[in-house]
Specification:
3% strand, transmembrane helix, F0_ATP_A_sf, membrane, mainly alpha
Length: 252
């Protein structure tokens, strides 16, 4: 009887309901999702789709305007993937690396350039999708799945051989590394973007005229760097997963 009373008292504690900030939720069946993140993510995806349509609507042999900009972005992403993954295997991964880079880049900049505060929600507020830990964790987990798939598609079960190389006692360290990769990817991006938004928000309240402008400019620069770092590390992890396969081909 005492055990039951203790369990009931524990269940009454509000510890399981603690949250950081307020959120605007959508109830989909038994699932509760962050509606504010879906709204801003769809906004970013819409911008990318519009830019893609504008760039490919009337293709010219000598590109100008939006076509020229998008071709430059594609060339930049292609070089990034080639340098990190390798010339033999980079082509299938250009869309994935490019999608990561463009989505994170536009998401980061949307937090600094779009006046989300003017849109009022029943609860919570809109902001950059990458300023929410759920978004960055999802992107990091997709990256983990991508480099696991890269290794399995080339080596099959032989991919697990690198866990015990060069010596078997490396196994626990390699397993820990697989957990730390998505953690570092997600928390680095989330922490930097959230910190930038908080700093700008505080400065706008304290000194609303000229002081926040250089901080906002610096925030745009660091936001672009964070997108580049995430995409570069994602490509590097994929390249590492394919590295043993390269050695096998060279041995033959």
């Amino acid at each position: 009887m005492e055990t039951l009373n203790l369990l009931e008292a524990y269940n009454c504690l509000p510890l399981a309901e603690l949250e950081v900030g307020q959120h605007f939720y959508w109830q989909i069946g038994n699932l509760k999702v962050h509606g504010q993140i879906f709204l801003t993510s769809w906004f970013v995806i819409g911008l990318l789709v519009i830019a893609s349509l504008a760039a490919t609507r009337n293709l010219q042999r000598i590109p100008t305007g939006m076509q020229n900009f998008m071709e430059y972005a594609l060339e930049f992403i292609r070089d990034l993937a080639k340098n990190q993954i390798g010339e033999k295997d980079y082509r299938p991964w250009v869309p994935f690396v490019g999608t990561l880079f463009l989505f994170i880049f536009v998401s980061n900049w949307s937090g600094a350039l779009v006046p989300w505060k003017l849109v009022h929600l029943p609860s919570g507020e809109l902001g950059a999708p990458t300023a929410d830990i759920n978004t960055t964790v999802a992107l990091a987990l997709l990256t983990s799945l991508a480099y696991f798939y890269a290794g399995f598609s080339k080596l099959g079960l032989g991919y697990f051989a690198h866990y015990v190389e060069p010596v078997p006692f490396m196994l626990p360290f390699k397993i820990i590394e697989d957990f730390t990769k998505p953690l570092s990817l997600s928390f680095r991006l989330f922490g930097n973007i959230l910190a930038d938004e908080l700093v700008v928000g505080v400065l706008v309240l304290l000194v609303p005229l000229f002081v926040p402008l250089p901080v906002m400019a610096l925030g745009l620069f660091t936001s672009a760097i964070q997108a580049l770092i995430f995409a570069t590390l994602a490509a590097a992890y994929i390249g590492e997963a394919l590295e043993d396969h390269h050695h096998e081909e060279e041995a033959h």
